[in-house]
Amino acid sequence: MTRMLRDTMEDWADEARVPHDLADRALRRRSWAPAGAAVLVVAMIAAVAVFVTGQREPAPVVRPAAGVTLPARPSPAPSDVRADTENSPPAKLIAAGGMAMSAYYTTGREAIGEDQVRVRRTWFLYDPRTDGYERTPYAWVDVAPGLQVAAVLEGDLLSRRLGVLDLNTRQMLTWIELEHPVASVAWSPDGTRILATAYSSYPDILVGKGDQAGPSMAGSPRTGYYLIDVPGGTADYHELPPLPGHLSDEPITNGNGRQDLGWSLDGKLIWGPTSTRPDRVFYTLDGERQEAPEGQRYVGYSRISATSPDGRLVLGPDGLPTEITEAATGKVAGRQQVLQLHAWADDDNVIALGCAGECDDEFNNGLVLVSVDGSRTTQLTRNRDSDREGAWRGVLTPR
């Protein structure tokens, strides 16, 4: 796999999760104490229908409570390099080594009062039938590792209906009815469970007018989360209040409205984002606060491992240049003339956010594949103005 990536780069010769300061910066940048937790029995339902953008499926049919048989992940997984440097947003699959851009979204703002703005996402999902991306009508999308199925939330804001979509057939394998409304979904690392974060009201509300609107810093309407075992056909709800806002005296806070939960790298714990350091707090699957798992390192504010597949190297923080260090010694292994290191493609190459030309404007950027020593860079996507409203944000998923 490493040789294939290197050969492709030499031939060519060149963002399911929040920054610590602003919620709307999170929308521009990338892209997850129980009390009286109860087990909810849910009906597993499905509609046999062809997926058509903007249309809803026919009336669902109740499925047995035994759950859903998920399609198998490809084995071996593809490892080739796929790029689209002509279209923005990309019209063809973007991938390198073990990672692919499974979806992307754009954001827009709409006024909902004199001094409030609501941020909406429009999601575009990978379609293996065309090898491109298709616009969806869903409020949230997350693709399972292997790019065979996606979890989707019906509607465009909060949702009480979660679907599991077969990407290859575009048929809904099941619909899951939820008592508590949710605003995000994230697949477990093994691709069998879904973590859905529940809110009492829509979390992406900013205070102010137009482009000047920002987070209220008052806190989050998060109420808890669902753990959904898709093959098992169960959905368990757990209460979990948000972290306190910035006005609190607590040492760990988060003033953002959206505080989506994510999985640990091994799927044994879940975590929530902070606006302090460290950038996340961990919980057991039942919602009890837990120490950070030893040896797990993450790309900042993401669910992606910062450690290379062979365990030797670690991705560093944002910067120009960025740097990669040795896991055992902390010694710098290489520096790269890019803005952000997003994910390992293989042991020697990284999917990163690069900037155009001499990087006079950091917001004129696109995805690139860069070697650890920074000597080889391959453009994966066309550069675009990532700071403008409507700019696309990619979501990376293991292939």
From TrEMBL:
Residues 382-391 have a biased composition (Basic and acidic residues). It comes from the Bacteria. Residues 67-89, 380-399 are annotated as: Disordered. Keywords: Membrane, Transmembrane, Transmembrane helix. This is WD40 repeat domain-containing protein. The chain crosses the membrane at residues 32-52. SUPFAM superfamilies: DPP6 N-terminal domain-like.
